[in-house]
Design goal:
By secondary structure, this protein is α/β, with parallel strands linked by helices. It folds into two domains: about 1-175, Rossmann fold, CATH 3.40.50; about 185-280, 2-Layer Sandwich (Pantoate--beta-alanine Ligase, Chain: A,domain 2). About 40% of the residues lie in helices and about 20% in strands. The chain has helices spanning about 5-20, 35-45, 75-85, 95-100, 115-120, 125-140, 150-165, 195-200, 200-215, 220-230; strands at about 1-5, 25-30, 50-55, 90, 145, 170-175, 235-245, 260-270, 270-280. The strands form two sheets. Strands 1-4-3-2-5-6 form a six-stranded parallel sheet, with helices on both faces. Helix 6 (about 125-140) crosses helix 7 and helix 9 (about 200-215) packs antiparallel against helix 10 (about 220-230). The longest helix is centred in the middle third of the chain and has 16 residues, at about 125-140.
């Protein structure tokens, strides 16, 4: 595995792979890798000849009161995991490399970013789209892999790709979970053992939604109410939102169907976690 830290080095690596006729797969991450990230690497390997994994804790997608300073970082560990999984190139730039002095252009998301995560974290999706657009411009990947755990992010990125006519295949990989249902997340590292137990309330609430769907409930309001009743049994979990939305632009629905996304965000102690399912698929 080659490690790249500057944009000229990245461009040189990409040009060389293109000359060799390789199909390039991109896996954008903020690091502190876990099996969910590595599943994206596996998917990129299936769809491309070479895999580039980027690690960059993107400051412009964090709000002023969010956890940028304490976001977990361990590049030596990430380097080992990436190489062990078969990544061909690791791009780990500095903030100055990605946003040189005087950098001011930002991508403005549309209505698919207005609700849920977009409302809870103002400016978040503008930061996400800006860094993803920059990576797409620099790498020009044939395929880019994202995780479904950040489901609204996949919707917003897909909209940008469509609107800007990028010839990029987007692969959305199912959420990887612990045996007890907890979705893998870099932020799980913040949880102490007791909080780790409480955090299973998120996947439990999603399972409640799926169970209601399976026995014929089609009212979004009723399913949300069932989820909230379940979450009330975990007073340590502070719910931020519950969304029942269609998959095109994350607009809320009144009647659910198999393709309906059920998503939620909650705080467990000081740690903010998100999770989701697609109703017809349920919780893995």
């Amino acid at each position: 595995m080659i490690e790249l830290s500057t944009i000229p080095d990245l461009k040189g690596w990409v040009r060389s792979r293109r000359r060799e006729g390789h199909r390039i797969g991109l896996v954008p991450t903020m690091g502190y890798l876990h099996e969910g990230h590595l599943a994206l690497v596996d998917e990129a390997r299936r769809r491309a000849d070479v895999v580039l994994l980027s690690i960059f804790v993107n400051p412009i997608q964090f709000g002023p009161s969010e956890d940028l300073a304490r976001y977990p970082r361990d590049l030596p560990r990430d380097r080992h995991l990436a190489e062990e999984r078969g990544v061909d190139a690791l791009f780990a730039p500095s903030e100055a490399a990605m946003y040189p002095p005087g950098s001011e252009t930002r991508i403005a998301p549309g209505r698919s970013a207005a609700r849920w995560e977009g409302a809870a974290r103002p400016g978040h999706f503008g930061g996400v789209l800006t860094v993803v657009a920059k990576l797409f411009h620099l790498v020009e990947p044939d395929v880019a892999c994202f995780g479904r755990k950040d489901v609204q992010q996949t919707v917003v990125v897909r909209q940008m790709v469509r609107d800007l006519d990028w010839p990029i295949e987007l692969a959305v990989v199912p959420t990887v979970r612990e045996p007890d249902g907890l979705a893998l997340s870099s932020r799980n590292a913040y949880l102490d053992p007791e909080q780790r137990h409480w955090a299973t309330a998120l996947s439990g609430a999603l399972q409640e939604a799926h169970s209601a769907w399976r026995v014929g409930e089609r009212s979004a309001q009723a399913i949300e109410a069932r989820m909230r009743r379940f979450l009330q049994t975990f007073p340590e979990v502070q719910v931020e939102y519950i969304a029942l939305a269609e998959p095109g632009a994350m607009a809320p629905v009144v009647e659910v169907q198999a393709t309906t996304i059920v998503a939620l965000a909650a705080r467990v102690g000081l740690t903010r976690l998100i999770d989701n399912i697609i109703l017809g698929e349920g919780v893995v």
